[in-house]
Every structure is written in structure tokens, then in C-alpha cells.
Amino acid sequence: xxxxxxxxxxxxxxxxxxxxxxxxxxxxxxxxxxxxxxxxxxxxxxxxxxxxxxxxxxxxxxxxxxxxxxxxxxxxxxxxxxxxxxxxxxxxxxxxxxxxxxxxxxxxxxxxxxxxxxxxxxxxxxxxxxxxxxxxxxxxxxxxxxxxxxxxxxxxxxxxxxxxxxxxxxxxxxxxxxxxxxxxxxxxxxxxxxxxxxxxxxxxxxxxxxxxxxxxxxxxxxxxxxxxxxxxxxxxxxxxxxxxxxxxxxxxxxxxxxxxxxxxxxxxxxxxxxxxxxxxxxxxxxxxxxxxxxxxxxxxxxxxxxxxxxxxxxxxxxxxxxxxxxxxxxxxxxxxxxxxxxxxxxxxxxxxxxxxxxxxxxxxxxxxxxxxxxxxxxxxxxxxxxxxxxxxxxxxxxxxxxxxxxxxxxxxxxxxxxxxxxxxxxxxxxxxxxxxxxxxxxxxxxxxxxxxxxxxxxxxxxxxxxxxxxxxxxxxxxxxx
Length: 481
What we know:
The protein is an alpha+beta fold. It has 15 helices and 21 strands. It has helices at 6-23, 47-59, 81-95, 116-120, 130-133, 144-165, 187-200, 226-248, 276-283, 296-299, 302-309, 363-375, 416-428, 445-474, 476-480; strands spanning 30-38, 66-69, 73-77, 104-112, 135-142, 173-176, 179-184, 204-210, 218-224, 257-261, 265-271, 287-293, 317-321, 327-331, 336-337, 341-348, 355-361, 381-387, 390-395, 407-411, 435-443. Strands 2-3-1-4 form a four-stranded antiparallel β-sheet, covered by helices on one side. Strands 10-11-5-21 form a four-stranded antiparallel β-sheet. A four-stranded antiparallel β-sheet has the order 6-7-9-8. Strand 10 and strand 11 form a beta hairpin. The longest helix is centred in the C-terminal third of the chain and has 30 residues, at 445-474. The two termini are 16 Å apart. 29% of the residues are buried.
């Protein structure tokens, strides 16, 4: 006889019903899908893109079983793989008419076949790993020498600026393998340069010497200290992992595995990904940030802009379209690169309370930016994200006053979401060091399906064997149990 009060029985029944309800998605399995996401900073995934994808499918007489949108992508659920491939080709042609200048990533994927009403109450299936679901496995080798070379190149530029500011004449600054060699005419100037470099570049070890060539110039050889090399290499691994996380969001992979293996390798596992080529393309993408000046005089000339839009910009400029669709001409000369950026955070303008992005530059970048803003007050400065040789203007603010101290603010015509996105791009838009794919495996879902089937059967037959034993041994009480 049940002696528990009604509310306890009701609570147990409610828990059982909710448990069954949120378990249901696991019984529907997965179906082929096409996923659309933006690959450019200035293009967002919104309701207009959703309508455009839906209209494209209708025009091609392709029937879908569900159309879903989130903050980063649009997903189209389809009945079979043939329809999936046809839909991918149709959407790709509609959204990317010029394959050499793609705006959207159109990738094959898998989606849960759960009904919309289950998805609407956030009843989602249990995500399976690579061994059960299938997918792709990559082992990436980070080029640590490339990271050090990149740092030495930027350090060489810093030393040129430093010696120029200190009015110290030299016979040339060159990188030779893993060292930076600075030549001088006499010992007094070399000693003066050594003192200035030691004060501003504590990560360098300086060794005096003499050129073995005919000139016999005195020289300083600068090398990175072991602690600095280790710090740069550790940063390269962490930065690359962060960047890979951001890029894999474009593929919409549920619970990807991205982790460091050893001192210089990164393991990437993408469960459920079918389009291996698209995954490799996104993982291997390189991006750089550049600050350039806008050619305001030419940009205000309608006839010049018409010619530029047709592919004939004035000499020394490039044609771009700013956020919001406004065209502008940007000078080719790069004033500052993203290598000088140490941090980028979204926030608000202290005066207007509009969304803004707050940047922090290193010492060399702060000095360059101070000179840049002092000499160009009232002019526009464009911040570009360069990917695969193609540039996108993230924003083009007007320089109001000289900006020193290495703290920079970007604001104007920007929502909170756009400020967060821009900060993310500036903070982790590029790889800190090159990477090569040294191992690649594609795992089919058939092995996982077989393992799941065996696990289900083992549980079922084990339960049946235990029930049979209890009935035989305990008879009536065993049957009741």
C-alpha cells in the first residue's frame, strides 16, 4: 500500500515525465544539413539572410525539414544526402557568386532530427564524441621558429624607431637567422646604442663584435633570452588555440575538442563534420590587422568613386565598403599592424555611453599611434582585417585628437553585439604562429553506430538474463521484483 502523501507521488511522476521528455531527442537521431555562416567581419548573420536562404531553396524547388538560426549561423535540415549536396550547391552559388571573394561559409553538417516543438523547449540530444558519431581528427604542428622569427622582425623595427628617436646613427639593422645585427662606425656610438637598447628591450641579450667583412664595422648582436623565447612560444600555442576556438564556431560543431599536445602540437577533433575540405580551410586561415589612413579627398569625389567601384581606384589607394554600406578609398600604406595589439575589450564611450572597443598597444605601437594621430587630427583612419589577401574595413573612425599612452578607443555606429564581435576579431583574429596539418583522419559514423548498437544489445540482454535468474531463483517474489 502506498503510504506516501499525494504531493510526493506527484513530484515523482513529474520528474519521470520531464526525464522522458528530455530523453526523447536521443531517439530521433541525426539528419543531413547545410550550415551557412559569415566569414567576413562586416557581414552578419541576420533574419534577412535567413529569408534569402529560404527563398533560394524555394526557387530551386528544394524542400527542407527545418530552418534554424542562431547568433553565428543558419542551418537547413534536409531529408537525405542527395538533397543536402544539391542544397549546398544552390546556396553557395546564390550567396557567393564570386568564388574568389566569398562572403559566407556554406558547409555540410549533421543536425538532430528532433521535432521543432522539442527543440523549442531546449530538449536537445546528448552529443556524441568522435568515436561514436564520426567526424574529422587533425593534429596541427605549430611553427615555433616562425613565432620567434615574427617577434624578431617586429623587434628589429622597434630598434630602428628607438635609435632614430635617440639620434643614434647606425650602419644598418638586419635579422640574421635567430639574431638581430646592428652595425656601427665607432665604439662610442655602439656603447650609447647598447645602453638605450638594454633599457627599452629587457628580453634581448646583447653581444659586442666586429664585422668579418671588408668594412670591419663594429656591431651589436641581439638574441632573445631563453625565458623570452619560452614565453613567446607559450603565447603562440595559447593564442592559436583561442583563434581555433573562434574559427570552429563557424562550423557549428557541438563540443569540439581543441587541446595542446606536447610542446608544439594542437589536437582538433570535430565530431559530426562531413565537409573535411571546409574544416581544413577554416582551420588554416590566416588573418592580419592593419591601420591605414582614408583618402577623404578622393572619397568625397563622386566621379572618382564611380571609377573606383569599377576597379579603377586612384594610384596608391584601394576601394572598400565600410560598415553600413558606405564606400571609401583607403591608402595602401600600412601605418600600424595588429602585431602591436596586446588586448581588445568591448565597453562604452565614457562621454556618449555608446558601445565602443578599447584597445591596448605595446610600447612601440603606442609611440607609432601617438605620432599617427598627432599628424592626422580630423582625418579618418581605417581598421582593416586582411584574410586570404582580401581586406575588410571593420570600422573607420575620425581622429579627434592626439592619442598617447597606448590606450585607443573605437566607437561610432556600433551596437553592443558589434563591439563584442570587433573586440573578438582584434583580440584573436590571427594566428600567432603558422601551423601545418601533420595528421588527418576522417572517421565514419558506421563504427560508432555499431558500437552504440552493441552497447544497447548488451544492456538489453543483460537485463533479461538478470530478470530470468531472479524469476527462476525467487519465483513469485523474483517476478514481482
